[in-house]
Known about the structure:
binds histidyl-adenosine monophosphate, 8-stranded mixed beta sheet, about 425 residues, single chain, BirA Bifunctional Protein, domain 2, Rossmann fold, alpha+beta, 2 domains, elongated
Amino acid sequence: MSVLKPRGTNDFLPETTAKWRYVENKLRELCKEYGYGEIRTPIFEETELFQRGVGDTTDIVQKEMYTFVMKGEHSLTLRPENTASAVRAYLENKLYGAVQPIKVWYMGPMFRYEKPQAGRFRQFHQFGIEIFGSASPLADAEIITFAWEFYRRLGIENLQLHLNSVGCPECRAKHKKALQEYLKPLLPKLCESCQSRYERNPLRILDCKSPICSELTKDAPTMDEFLCDECKEHFEGVKSALDAAGIPYVLNKRLVRGLDYYTKTAFEIQAVGIGAQSAVCGGGRYDGLVEELGGNPTPGVGFAMGMERIFNTLDACGIELPVEEKTDVFVIAAPADNKQILNKAFELTLELRREGIKAEQDLLGRSMKAQFKAADRSGAKFTVIVGESEVEKGVVQVRSMHDGSQEEIEESMVASYINALVIND
Ligand code: HAM
């Protein structure tokens, strides 16, 4: 039996990677417009970074990390997300010393040992942005606007923005206490995961997907009842900026998110109708994270979106991306068993490519008839025929695959001739 790829991973073949490139370019375009610079951090980090950053009580740290120890060194972990790494890089490279805010973006593979299912993988890809050094609600609104604008540009419309404020540590402590009091008598009836969350992280019980837990907690106290004045004011600021940008949102008091670092704003963008894994983007503010990882108090806010889920959503919406990449020219050696002609065809193909033309030729030593068939299949707009008498005269035949018309063109002029036709096409 041959070796297969590990569970929960994917191979992306050229047809798919062409779509990825299209989407990645759209994201790069937005980063330029919004003023974000790219950051690339290692794919593995010291395990402690995620324990402290993402949080010891989270499912990610408790159950989902790919952790390994190499030859007696420190424990290392394949990154399950990139925010903690971005903060580490901000501190390690002293970016706090530069003019604030610092706005960065990243894209790449993340690793979580999850139960694979449609839309949920063990190696998946995220695009994300982070802003360091701004406490303004406009920063929260900017990142949400970025994500919203991106999906809009792809033509995805079936989206819902879920918005909540999870408050600061002070309001959260009050909420936690009230929640534990409310949940105490219900504890035996909650699911096993929620029972274990009761002490460590009772807020997460609010967004448990089990119908029994949802029903039992439907009247549980929610964070909005405990927000301090500053958190309230911040949340109002975010909402009014989103209103100004015309971005609709659903206030979701039960939205908690699965990472411990959030303060104030938390949000998710859900794609309606793509199945269970409908969160296409998640993020929020994390004003305590830089300090938690050893820096001075520094506000931060950001999001990450799952790349695979973008494609699920595009498929579910029937959106075709304009990525058909056909060749412009197929160069035919006639006949194919003449070495001099073959070399001439090879040289000409190279020349055309140097002039920016997408050019291909036969690499299988096929007959002329078979080369014409291959040209047809390639979708080329033109064939360039390099024949014996043509080579003697220093010309080639350029044939339009569209209407069969054929012109004799001087070899030195063929690139500019085709370029003019391709541009006019
Ligand atoms: P997250 O909600 O864990 O947040 O992940 C963000 C997005 O990554 C999800 O909404 C989903 O689209 C995608 N995703 C997560 N896990 C998987 C998986 N197993 N398979 C496929 N896609 C997945 C974070 O990671 C935070 N770092 C976001 C953030 C940035 N918050 C502030 N800044």
